[in-house]
Amino acid sequence: MATIAFFIWTFCSIFLTFNVFSPLVKRSNSSFRLILFSYFLGLVVGDLFPQWILLNLGILLIFTNYDILLSPIGLAGTICHIVCWIILSIRLWIIIDLPGRMHLKMLENFGTKWYKVSKGNLYPRNFLDIDWYSWLNPIHSIKDPRIEIIRNQVYHNENGLELKLDIYRPKNIKKKRPGILQIHGGAWITGSKRQSSFFLLNMALKGWVCFSVTHRFSPKNVFPEHLIDIKRALKWIRENADLHGLDKNFIISKGSSSGGHLASLMALTQNISEFQPGFNQTDTSIQGCVTMYGVYNFLDSFDKITSYPAKSKILEKVCGGTPKTKPSCYKKITPKNWISKEAPPFLVLHAETDALISIEESKKFWNDLQSRNVYSSVFLSIPLAEHGFDVFPTLTAQCIVPIIEQFLIMIHGNYLCKKEKNET
User: Fold this and answer.
1) Rounded to 10 degrees, what is the CA torsion of 314, 317, 319, 320?
2) DSSP code per residue over 360-404
3) Contact call for residues 59 and 69 (beta carbons, < 8 A)
4) Are 305 and 30 in contact (CB under 8 A)?
């Protein structure tokens, strides 16, 4: 019995290691639950590597009570486990080298503007620089006396349903600070405004005022209700800007997954009355956008060649039908159709081994942005990372979040320079 259990454990370890580097479940012929399971395992084994190693060492310790480890099968299995751990450790070396390579790409794109904001950056340069406590305790509540978190502020009441947001802001604000509008992921059908706490806390420490918002979900609500809710949140934020020390003239939209899609639409559909029913005179301008592993293509999943049945089923709930029955909705929900030269700067990020959303979506969206010459924008692909790599304060998040911080500081600096010139 112990031999069988050891064999199963060894096989699962090999399978899960390969799943980190290349999701073994195919989108074209798998159910959403199976794809989600593959994604979850890839995230746990890859990004929560210390916990995975501790779990495996505990299991190995249990097997020391049996003679299996002294047999040829036990010895071979132990070697397999060690090889898997070494492979996963090599992945960490690749991840920790990411900021340096991304810095060079940003320097190539932005030149001296990037060089000025990249001095003294605090991303980990080696394993001693890693915040091990946060990585080992990814769900612990981070508290900092310099930050104030205000939960569950109601920004709109829709038929008895209270739509809420959380505020992360530095204490003792003495001057107007730039703002971030954070939109959670969850396939438009679920989600939590606490998803990006690690990023929001870091930005609040840098002096930014951050608002993490939620919206109504499908299938009860169909597009564009989700986008309208976020614009209502932006209306509330600007109306209460003075109360929270916010510069209402500089607000960034940021989101991940479905939130990345909504963040991009917030940046591309500024002040369009169709998405502002009852408040069409409100300023809904956005000064920049950070979109991470977002959804941008709403037709490919219905095509036989690029079929993704699980995604199609979700989109039918979000749009209230298929592209054939709801063509207008699918046209409006696609970010590409709203791109113009007036679009603000974009930072587009995507994980190369994303099990849920193909990186090709972000590449195509980036090409669409380039074709319209959207200024001060860049696309970054994250090797060996999974969907949701920034949710927990893992090594991947600790390496990528500082790059996002620098980008936002850079475009805010551009805004201040332009404002100063206009005033003089």
Assistant:
1) 150
2) HHHHHHHHHHHHTT-SS-EEEEETT--TTTTSS--HHHHHHHHHH
3) no
4) no
* Active-site residue (options: 166, 229, 354, 390): 354
User: What does the pLDDT read at residue 77?
Assistant: 86
Record the pTM: 0.95
- Please pick, among 196, 256, 257, 301, the residue that the annotation labels catalytic: 257
The one catalytic residue in 256, 387, 390, 412 is 387
Annotation marks residue 387 as catalytic: yes
Nearest to 288 by CA among 162, 395, 378, 380: 378
Residue burial 203-216, b: 16+ Cβ < 10 Å; e: rest:
bbeebbbbbbbbbb
152 phi, psi to nearest 5 deg? 55, 50
Mean pLDDT confidence for 398-420 = 93
What tens digit of pLDDT does each residue of 277-305 get? 999 999 999 999 999 999 999 999 998 88
Q: What is the pLDDT of residues 104-156, one digit of tens each?
A: 999 999 998 898 887 766 788 888 889 898 898 877 766 788 899 999 999 99
Write out the H or E segment, with its range, that includes residue 152.
Answer: strand 147-158
The alpha-carbon radius of gyration of the chain (Å, integer) is 23
370 CB neighbour count, 10 Å cutoff: 12
**354 assigned to active site:** yes
As given in the structure block, the two tokens for residue 320 are 């209230």
Residue 215 appears among annotated catalytic residues: no
Question: Does the structure show a pLDDT above 90 at 18?
Answer: yes
